[in-house]
Write a structure and sequence with these properties.
heterodimer, A: alpha+beta, three-stranded antiparallel beta sheet, elongated, B: alpha/beta, nine-stranded mixed beta sheet, 5 helices, 11 strands, 22% helix, globular
Chain lengths: 84, 227
């Protein structure tokens, strides 16, 4: 069966205060970078088997839904590719 | 009354939970998180700790453990469920209690004694406290900022589901240790049989531990059987 690699991005919903992002923002500013804001999220790279690209997309989205907490997070399927 | 204390990989308040339950005269046994049955138990205690190293999010991976289906059934059937600290995080991640626990606003792992006001006294967990009493309980967490959307918060307040709220212990103005919305430290479900809280009552059941303000919570559970 072909293998696919999905890149899932999990981020805090807009409007939810992200103290981790604030801390990073502060350091960047202190070092002279004119930053407006920073948000910290998580990237998950998952490799799994699937018959077709469509099936892989469905599986990747199902995993994203399982792993993101809908109370405070959103997930995006950033990339999906078949591995050689 | 027989209580199950669920152990996840990384639980570390399991023995404290057992000490507190047994001190109150309850029977307690450890249950591994891969168990699929809680048959024969009358209550479930989800202890504090760092299940799965708090990877992904605190409590997130533990919430998917096999035993959680059974905890969900327990909750639905109106039997007693308590989640303290990481256990509270697991309960929200499992969707058994609403809301979520986010990183403390100060970004610190905060380990100290806080004031916790008892908002409800009609629950098995709080029946032995006078309403409005401010307890002295320890907290020890990095992700304890209670968050829920405005609609959920309004429902919690409207239905009186907030059981514990951070409160000044010595008159201090800055008493909310993590930035929880509405100073929420613990909540219950509609039926009042599930309790989730960030402070550790099980670590305050003996003077040797620095205080006994948590003991009435456990004694109240004993009364639940004998009542």
């Amino acid at each position: 069966m072909p293998k696919y690699q999905a890149t899932l991005l999990i981020e805090l919903k807009e409007g939810i205060l992200d103290p981790q992002g604030r801390a990073v923002e502060g350091v960047l500013k202190d070092l002279g970078h004119p930053v407006e804001s920073v948000r910290v999220g998580k990237v998950l790279e998952v490799i799994f088997p699937a018959e077709t690209l469509l099936e892989a997309e469905e599986k990747a989205k199902a995993m994203g839904k399982l792993l993101a907490n809908p109370v405070m997070e959103v997930f995006t399927l950033e990339a999906l590719k078949e591995l050689p | 009354m027989r209580w199950a204390i669920v152990r996840f990989p990384g639980s570390n308040c399991d023995e404290d939970a057992r000490f507190a339950l047994e001190k109150a005269g309850l029977k307690a046994e450890y249950v591994w998180h891969t168990e699929t049955s809680l048959k024969g138990f009358d209550g479930v205690f989800l202890p504090g700790g760092f299940s799965y190293g708090d990877y992904l999010r605190a409590g997130a991976l533990a919430a998917k453990s096999p035993v959680m289906e059974e905890v969900r059934r327990f909750a639905r059937e109106g039997r007693l469920v308590i989640g303290v600290c990481n256990g509270f995080q697991v309960l929200t991640e499992a969707g058994i209690l609403p809301g979520a626990l986010l990183a403390n606003l100060n970004l610190h792992f905060t380990c100290k004694e806080v004031g916790v006001r008892v908002e409800r006294t009609d629950l098995p967990f709080t029946r032995l406290y006078p309403r409005g009493q401010v307890l002295r309980l320890p907290i020890a967490h990095a992700e304890g900022r209670y968050y829920a959307d405005a609609e959920t918060l309004a429902r919690l307040e409207g239905e009186g589901l907030v059981v514990f709220r951070y409160a000044p212990l010595r008159g201090e103005a800055d008493y909310n240790p993590n930035g929880s919305l509405h100073d929420i430290a613990g909540i219950t479900n509609e039926k009042g049989n599930v309790l989730g809280m960030m402070p550790h009552p099980e670590r305050a059941v003996d003077e040797v531990l620095g205080g006994t303000d948590g003991l009435p919570l456990f004694l109240g559970l004993l009364e639940e059987v004998t009542a």
